[in-house]
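thread: overnight batch results

M.L. [08:02]
morning all. the overnight job finished for the chain we discussed friday. pasting input first so we're all looking at the same thing
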Amino acid sequence: MIPGGRGRANGHSAPRQSFLRQTRQPRPDGSIPRIGMFEHISLRTRIGLLAALVAGLAVVLVSISAFVTVRANIMQTLDSNLLQRASAAAQSELADPQQLATIPTEVLGAGDIRLALFLSNGSAISAEAAASAPPLGADELAVARGQVSSSTRTATLDGVPYRVVAVQAGPGQALVIAQRLDATQQVLTRLGVALPVVGGIGVVLAAFAGAAVARAGLRPVERLTAATERVAATGELRPLPVEGSDELARLTHSYNDMLGALAASQEQQRRLVADAGHELRTPLTSMRTNLELLIAASRPGAPSLSESDRAEILEDVQAQVEELSTLVGDLVELARDDAPTVVHEPLVLTDVVLRALERARRRAGDVEFEPVLVPWTLVGDATALERAVLNLLDNAAKWSPKGGTVRVQMRPLDEWWLVLEVADAGPGIADEDLPRVFDRFYRAATSRTMPGSGLGLAIVRQVAVRHGGAVWAGRAPEGGALLAMRLPGRPQRFGE
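M.L. [08:03]
and the structure it wrote out:
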């Protein structure tokens, strides 16, 4: 033994086992990766190989079953024939078994049969003595002694296989007939060769059939693959034609739905960027003009600005910076179609509305707010809901006349839904603008000169939808606009 041989053997096998463990470790989704050699085989080829493998296993099982069944039937038929002939000869009244045993079988027209009369003392009577005697043994002796009525077995004599049967032929004797199995074994041998050959042809045909079926079945998958590659290469989101109603048709429908959602998302992003660029251009241009004016006035020899003009320009710049900050914050909020990092927790909507009212009163001037609140709880994001309510209040305050009153009412629809209404006494919303007041960057013709970016109400709708609710606009009984937000939840009960 070579010293350290075991260690080296283990050292070689350990990296291989480690490699196998690494290659077969589960993926993050829980699936097990395929063996590396199958990673480079196409799905069509794998289906063909699988069909050939299944067909091969079926052929092997059918061949074995057929061979065993045919062999058993042939041997059973041969045994029945031999036993019938032996019983008929032993019970025949026209021939004495002892005389029959001394007649050569060639005379009887059965050259492949050996015949003998086996006595209970172990002696045998047959034609031409041992030359025509069948194989004799304990089974035949038991029949001669009357221990069993008949026996059947396969024996070999001089290298030749025989099927040997024995029946009782009187007291203390048995008639033994043995037939050569050469012809039978030839038939079984040919059958054993024919079955694998036919089975192999069937396996090949099954492989081709599997490949053909895979080619036809995977044609929609190939179209999806080509379409996906086309989308990746050109960005063209053209849907695929759908044929049939099977699983592949459903997959094509899902793919087309995905393309539609992707196209809508791209269009939404394009509009958002275009609208954002348009909204950012105005304050940036104004701020750039004011800053260039201040820079030009500070140069030597340039006309100087009065303190009042300078203060006015700086005030404009500060207002434009605040407008840009608000616009950027609104854009960031709207860009988040979903907020996976936000933790939704039970909260009291009444407290959220009260905090928003406190903030709105500080910057609403002489506009009054008249709240009508009810205790209501829900599961949601308190920060987002507070911003949405504040946007509704700011919008109502902006359009309210001096000294006007804004009604803020929480009105339960049933024990599962509540509507928050914010109504003002301003000019109201035109009928053609009502369906679009919650769209991004939408501003009515009468509000073009008013401060704002057109994103506040869009944020309200996004927050409401994120919480499973909805928003709408209408006319208030006070004569102005009525903006409503419906939210799920339940009434707050005492002690909660």
